[in-house]
Specification:
- By secondary structure, the protein is α/β, with parallel strands linked by helices.
- The chain has one domain (34-312).
- 36% of the residues lie in helices and 23% in strands.
- The strands form two sheets. Strands 1, 2, 3, 4, 5, 6, 9, 10, 11 and 12 form a ten-stranded mixed β-sheet that branches. The protein has a four-stranded mixed β-sheet with strand order 13-7-8-14, with no helix packed on it.
- Strand 4 and strand 5 form a beta hairpin.
- Helix 5 crosses helix 6.
- The longest helix has 22 residues, at 4-25.
- The protein starts with a helix and ends with a strand.
- Residues 300-305 have low confidence and may be disordered.
Length: 313
């Protein structure tokens, strides 16, 4: 048997060893280096796809999968991530004539939506249809960014961000709800965020050239054309800031694009989380008014329900 002194000594020794193991286990992770490695992995995965797949369509699907995995690792689970179409009510007089005329956007590589208050309207396996009422952002994926693609990227952002009208039901008492419309004016419009992820870029295409082309096209196309963030993997991160339309000095920055060449993936991670955290949230007492996408609209005057006919807009 061990003597009392030996037992005490062993206990002290084990305590010292345990403390050292704890200190070693809580060493601060090298976040910057990890982000750099993640970016390297993304670039290498794209190279594998290029070497392994000849068909452009399948190559695109493989690239989308890699980027979706990355985005899922970046964003909290409150954000749904899918590919497909955004559906929206295209009839500007829907409130007055109660005629449903939904339309779809072009197919989008990644749609980011509110997974707490809504699900896709239609799930098709290979793609989904998501109501604009739930959408926060979309991401366009480019295997390789070419200079002549930049104008189309900006045009697409203007077209998609121009869809601002959203319909919700707001609870009113224990049995009724009020149809509430937002996005009819600039004061309560929330154009969705537009992002681009490029896994590579045209040989000789410099980050400064991309910045110049983005600024030029955003200014020429105007309207809601706007790029919240563009990641060119292993090269650069470009982004725009929203401006205060009531501040004349700030309005001058409307078409400005900012360029960061250091640690682009890390910058993208920070930016997308910050942007989405500040985006409009569906209030707890609201729900998306999904029946506006049905041709069989209920006449609430004849059939009272939780969705009452009272309208605020």
């Amino acid at each position: 048997m061990l003597g009392r002194e030996n037992a005490v000594w062993i206990r002290e020794l084990l305590t010292i060893i345990s403390d050292k193991e704890v200190k070693m286990s809580i060493a601060i992770p090298k976040y910057d280096e990890i982000c750099n490695l993640e970016e390297d992995i993304l670039s290498k995965r794209w190279q594998i796809i290029r070497y392994a797949i000849a068909h452009n369509g399948e190559k695109g699907f493989a690239a989308e999968y890699e980027v979706q995995q990355l985005i899922r690792s970046i964003l909290p689970n409150e954000y749904g991530i899918t590919t497909g179409f955004i559906i929206y009510q295209a009839n500007p007089n829907y409130i007055n004539d109660n005629k449903s005329e939904p339309e779809l956007t072009k197919q989008l590589d990644i749609i980011i939506y509110d997974a707490i208050k809504c699900t896709p309207l239609i799930r098709l396996g290979s793609c989904d249809v998501v109501p604009i009422e739930a959408v926060y952002a979309y991401i366009e994926i480019k295997g390789c960014l070419y200079k002549n693609q930049i104008k189309e990227i900006v045009q697409d952002s203007g077209s998609i961000r121009n869809i601002t009208k959203r319909y919700y039901y707001e609870t009113a008492g224990s049995t009724n709800a009020i149809l509430k419309v937002i996005g009819e004016s600039n004061e309560n419009a929330y154009p969705i965020r537009a992002y681009v992820i490029c896994l590579d870029s045209q040989e000789g295409l410099q980050a400064d050239d991309v910045k110049i082309e983005l600024e030029k096209n955003i200014k020429e196309i105007g309207g809601n054309s706007f790029i919240s963030g563009m990641l060119v993997s292993g090269n650069s991160f470009l982004f725009s800031h929203s401006v205060n339309s009531k501040d004349k000095n700030d309005i001058e920055n409307k078409d400005k694009v900012y360029l960061l060449k250091d640690k682009p993936l890390m910058r993208f991670k920070w930016r997308i989380n910050e942007d989405l955290s500040r985006f409009f949230r569906i209030p707890s007492e609201w729900t998306p008014a999904l029946e506006i996408y049905s041709g069989n609209i209920i006449n609430h005057n004849n059939y009272p329900s939780a969705s009452a006919p009272t309208i605020i807009h």
